[in-house]
Write a structure and sequence with these properties.
Layout: H1 6-12, E1 14-17, H2 36-44, E2 50-52, H3 57-70, E3 78-81, H4 94-99, H5 103-119, E4 124-125, H6 149-164, E5 179-181, H7 200-207, H8 209-216, E6 221-224, E7 228-229, E8 232-233, H9 238-248, E9 254-256, H10 264-268, H11 274-284, E10 289-290, H12 294-304, H13 310-326, H14 339-343, H15 348-360, E11 364-368, E12 382-385, H16 411-418, E13 425-428, H17 440-449, E14 453-459, H18 478-489, E15 494-499, H19 508-512, E16 515-518, H20 526-534, E17 548-549, E18 586-588, E19 599-601, E20 605-606, E21 610-611, E22 616-625, E23 631-641, E24 652-661, E25 666-674, E26 680-681, E27 687-688, E28 692-699, E29 708-712
Parallel strand pairs: 1-2, 1-10, 2-3, 3-4, 5-6, 6-9, 12-13, 12-14, 14-15, 15-16, 21-29
Antiparallel strand pairs: 7-8, 11-16, 17-18, 19-22, 20-22, 22-25, 23-24, 23-28, 26-27, 28-29
Helix pairs in contact: 1-12, 5-6, 5-15, 6-8, 11-12, 15-20, 16-20, 17-18
The structure holds alpha-D-glucopyranose.
Length: 718
C-alpha cells in the first residue's frame, strides 16, 4: 500500500470487460469499450484490478503475466464472470433448481460450475442472484429462487458454499457474489430498473435476509443493484452500503457496483455529473466501479481536493488486495490459469449426470388428470408437437455465456432415446415460438388425432426472461396458445411441457390439458431429464417456488401476503378482497407439485402448545405413501401469527424437508421451531417475535393442510 501511487490504488478499484479474451465478438460495444491491446496496456500500467466476462486459461495466463511481471508492482488480476447456473455444463436456471426444494443439489451444481469455471481461467462469479421476485412481469426472477424468503436464504447460502468450496485458495475455488444488493426484485410493476418503493420493514423482512444468509455462508463480496430504494439509488446508498452492511452487520468484504451503476446515478437524477457520481458512489461505500471508468478518471482529483477521504480510499484498496490474498493470488498468481486443466474434461461425464439429475428434480408436475402420465416406452403412439419439440436454441435459459451448446441434448432426442421404438414418435412443430406456421395447426391436429397421446412442448423463448425482459402479460405467445387450443380440442389426451423463466398465466387449451409440467429451462440435459419424468424413470418431486396465478393482472402475487380486512369468503363475492374476473387465489399455489404416487398426512403433533420465550417446540407429522410407487414428498412447515403489531402473512414457510417414502410406507417428519423463526420487523423497527397465538401447518403446499395452534409465551412466563 505504501508503495502504491494514487493511480495504482485507484486502478485496483476498477473492473472492466475482458476484451483480451471476450466471450463474444461484440461484447460491451456501448460503454468504454476497449480493444484487447488497450486492455493489456491498462493492465501493464497497473490501472486495472479486475477483468470480467473473459474466458480461457491460456489467454488469461498471458494477461496475468503482464500484470505480475510487467506492471510496476506486479499486483495480480482477478478474473470474474457471470457463471450463474453452470459454465460449460449447463444446469437448470436457479428458479428451476429452487423448485427442487433441495439446497444441497444447488450446492453441488454450483460446485460443478466452479470446477469448470476455474478450469477456464476464472476466480470469481457474479452469482448467486438472491433477489426475491414477487412480480412475474419482471424477467430476472429466473436467476433467483422464487417468491419465498426462506428459499431465497437457503438456496443463496448453498450456492455460495458450492461456488467457494472449503478453501478459497484452492485451484477450483470460485469467489461468490450475492446480488443485487438490494431489493432489485421489488421493481415497480415488475419493470426492470424501475423504482423500488417499499417499507423499511419489507426491505428488512423480505429482501435483505438472503444477503445476510449468504454472508453467514462465507460470501466476501456483494454486487450493488441498479434500482433506487425509496429514492436513494442502491449503488450510492450510504445507509445500505455502510450503515447497514458494515456498521450493523459487520460485513468486512467488498461491494462491487453492477455494470455502470455509478454512471447511472446521473440518469437517475441523483448525481450532477461524472465527478459527482463518483463522489456519491464511493463515499456511500461502493468499493469497485464496474466498466464506467469513473473511479479511474475522477477519484484521484476528488482525493486531492479533500472531497474523498484518503483513508476511505485506502480502506477500499486494502479490501481488494486482501481479497486477492485470500484467493491465494499473491502466492500463486497463475492459480486457475492452467491450460492443461482446462483441456482436461474428465469431470464432464459426472457433471452431465448431475445436470440430468438436477433437471429432473426441478420439473414440477402441476396436473395429471386420469394419470395420463407416466407414458409407456412401447405400445403407445406419441405425437410430440410444438415449437419446443426440436428446439435447440431455448434449452439453457436467459443467462448462459459459456455453455457448450453442441453437447446439449434437446427434447426430441431425449424422448427418442427413451422409447423402445423411436419410430412410434411423430414430431410436428405446429407453430413457431412467436409466429404461426402455414398449415401448422392442421398438421398438428392431424398428428394428434393419429396418436394415443400428445406431448405438447411449449414455452417462452429464453430471451423473454432475464435482464431487461419485463413482460406486460405473462402468458404464452398467441401463436402457441392457438396451437394448444386446437390440439387439446382434438380429443387426444395432451401432456403440456412448459419452458419458462417465470410463472405463467395459463389459459384455454393449455390450462385444460390433461397434464401439465413446469419445466423452466433445464440446460444441457433437457431431453433425457424430461424423458426420465415423462416415462416414469424418475418420479417427479419438485414443488412450485412461486405462485402460478390465474391471470397476469394479479401481479404482483405471492402466497405470504397479509390477510385483508375483507378476506374472500366462500360464496360471498361482493365487497371482498377479489377481482371482478377471478378470485385472488393462485391457479397453482406456492409449494404445489404432484407425484406419480399419493401421500397422506396425519394431523400435526406438537411437543407443546405453549412455547416459552426461550423454548423450542417440535412439530411432527406422519406422512404415508398411499400409492404403488416410491416417491419423494416435500413436507412444508408454515406458521401464521394471528395477532401482531403489524399485519402478518396468512402463511410463511419456516422449514421444509424432502423425504423419500416407499409405497405403503409411513415416515415421521419432525421440525424444531423457536421464537427466532417467528420474529419480524415491527412498527418501531424492532426485530422481535411477539407473544400470542399462532397457527402451524405441516402440509404439501401453501394452501393445504389443517392448522394446529400454539401460543408463544412472553419473557419469563412459564
Ligand atoms: C449485468 C447484470 C449483473 C451482471 C453484470 C456483469 O447488467 O445486472 O447481474 O453480473 O451486469 O455482467
Amino acid at each position: 500500500m505504501a508503495r502504491m501511487t494514487m493511480e495504482e490504488k485507484v486502478g485496483q478499484l476498477g473492473c472492466f470487460a475482458d476484451m483480451h479474451r471476450p466471450f463474444a465478438a461484440d461484447v460491451n460495444p456501448e460503454v468504454a469499450a476497449q480493444s484487447a491491446s488497450e486492455v493489456l496496456a491498462e493492465v501493464r500500467a497497473g490501472r486495472v484490478g479486475t477483468l470480467f466476462n473473459g474466458v480461457g486459461a491460456a489467454l488469461g495466463r498471458e494477461a496475468q503475466r503482464i500484470a505480475v511481471e510487467e506492471s510496476r508492482l506486479g499486483i495480480p488480476l482477478l478474473f470474474a464472470a457471470d457463471v450463474i447456473h453452470g459454465m460449460r455444463t449447463v444446469f437448470p436456471i436457479p428458479l428451476g433448481e429452487g423448485a427442487s426444494f433441495e439446497p444441497e443439489l444447488a450446492r453441488r451444481t454450483a460446485r460443478a460450475a466452479a470446477i469448470e469455471a476455474t478450469a477456464a481461467g476464472l476466480h470469481w462469479t457474479f452469482a448467486p442472484a438472491v433477489d426475491i421476485a414477487r412480480d412475474q412481469r419482471w424477467g430476472r426472477g429466473a436467476e433467483g429462487s422464487g417468491e419465498d424468503v426462506l428459499l431465497g436464504c437457503v438456496f443463496g447460502a448453498a450456492r455460495v458454499r458450492g461456488f467457494q468450496g472449503d478453501d478459497l485458495r484452492a485451484e477450483d475455488a470460485l469467489l461468490a457474489t450475492p446480488k443485487h444488493f438490494a431489493a432489485y426484485g421489488g421493481a415497480a410493476a415488475g419493470l426492470d430498473y424501475s423504482q423500488v418503493d417499499i417499507s423499511a420493514q419489507t426491505l428488512r423482512d423480505v429482501h435483505l435476509p438472503p444477503f445476510r444468509a449468504c454472508i453467514e455462508a462465507g460470501a466476501l463480496t456483494l454486487m450493488s443493484a441498479f434500482n433506487d430504494i425509496n429514492g436513494i439509488p442502491a449503488s450510492a446508498n450510504r445507509w445500505l452500503l455502510t450503515d447497514l452492511l458494515r456498521t450493523e452487520w459487520g460485513f468486512d468484504g467488498l461491494v462491487i457496483g453492477d455494470y455502470t451503476a455509478d454512471m447511472e446515478l446521473i440518469a437517475h437524477g441523483y448525481a450532477e455529473d461524472e465527478r459527482d457520481a463518483t463522489r456519491l458512489a464511493f463515499t456511500a461505500g461502493l468499493d469497485i466501479s464496474m466498466q464506467s471508468g469513473f473511479y479511474r478518471d475522477h477519484l484521484p482529483a476528488l482525493v486531492a481536493a479533500g472531497v474523498v477521504d484518503r483513508a476511505q480510499l485506502d480502506a477500499s484498496v486494502r479490501r481488494v488486495l486482501e481479497l486477492k490474498d485470500r484467493l491465494g493470488l499473491f502466492d500463486n498468481p497463475y492459480r486457475s490459469l492452467d491450460p492443461q486443466r482446462e483441456a482436461d474434461t474428465s469431470h464432464r461425464e459426472a457433471h452431465e449426470a448431475l445436470a440430468r439429475d438436477a433437471a429432473r428434480r426441478s420439473i414440477v408436475l402441476l396436473k395429471n388428470d386420469g394419470d395420463v402420465l407416466p407414458l409407456r416406452r412401447a405400445g403407445q403412439r406419441i405425437a410430440l408437437i410444438g415449437p419446443m419439440a426440436e428446439d435447440r436454441d431455448n434449452l439453457e435459459g436467459c443467462w448462459v455465456l459459456f455453455g457448450e451448446r453442441e453437447r446439449y441434448v434437446d427434447l426430441v432426442t431425449g424422448l427418442r432415446a427413451a422409447l423402445e421404438d423411436a419410430d412410434a414418435l411423430t414430431v410436428c412443430a405446429g407453430s413457431g415460438l412467436e409466429e404461426a406456421l402455414p398449415g401448422g395447426i392442421d398438421a398438428a391436429v392431424a398428428a394428434a388425432r393419429a396418436a394415443d397421446v400428445v406431448v405438447l412442448a411449449l414455452g417462452e423463448p429464453q430471451r423473454y426472461s432475464g435482464e431487461a425482459q419485463s413482460r406486460v402479460s405473462i402468458t404464452l405467445p398467441p401463436a402457441q396458445q392457438a396451437l394448444a387450443d386446437a390440439v387439446v380440442a382434438s380429443g387426444t389426451p395432451v401432456v403440456v411441457l412448459l419452458r419458462h423463466g417465470r410463472a405463467l398465466a395459463l389459459e384455454g387449451g393449455v390450462r385444460d390439458a390433461a397434464a401439465i409440467a413446469a419445466c423452466w429451462f433445464l440446460g444441457s440435459q433437457t431431453g433425457p431429464a424430461t424423458a426420465d419424468v415423462l416415462f416414469g424413470g424418475y418420479n417427479p418431486s419438485a414443488r412450485l417456488p412461486l405462485s402460478f396465478p390465474q391471470h397476469s393482472g394479479q401481479q404482483p402475487y405471492f402466497y405470504a401476503h397479509p390477510r385483508s380486512g375483507r378476506p374472500e369468503l366462500p360464496g360471498v363475492t361482493e365487497f371482498k378482497n377479489r377481482w371482478r374476473e377471478c378470485t385472488n387465489a393462485a391457479l397453482y399455489p406456492f409449494g404445489h407439485g404432484l407425484s406419480y404416487t399419493t401421500f397422506d398426512y396425519g394431523a400435526p403433533r406438537l411437543s407443546t402448545s405453549r412455547l416459552t420465550w426461550d423454548g423450542t417446540l417440535t412439530a411432527t407429522v406422519a406422512v404415508t405413501n398411499t400409492g404403488s410407487v416410491a416417491g419423494e414428498e416435500v413436507v412444508q412447515l408454515y406458521v401464521h401469527d394471528r395477532v401482531a403489531s403489524r399485519v402478518r402473512p396468512v402463511r410463511e414457510l419456516k422449514d421444509f424437508r424432502k423425504v423419500a417414502i416407499g409405497p405403503g410406507e409411513t415416515v415421521e417428519v419432525g421440525f424444531e421451531l423457536d421464537r427466532r423463526q417467528l420474529a419480524f420487523t415491527g412498527p418501531e423497527m424492532q426485530s422481535e417475535a411477539e407473544p400470542g397465538a399462532f397457527d402451524l401447518w405441516l402440509a404439501p403446499s401453501s394452501v393445504a393442510g389443517e392448522a394446529v395452534q400454539f401460543e408463544l409465551l412472553g419473557p419469563g412466563v412459564e
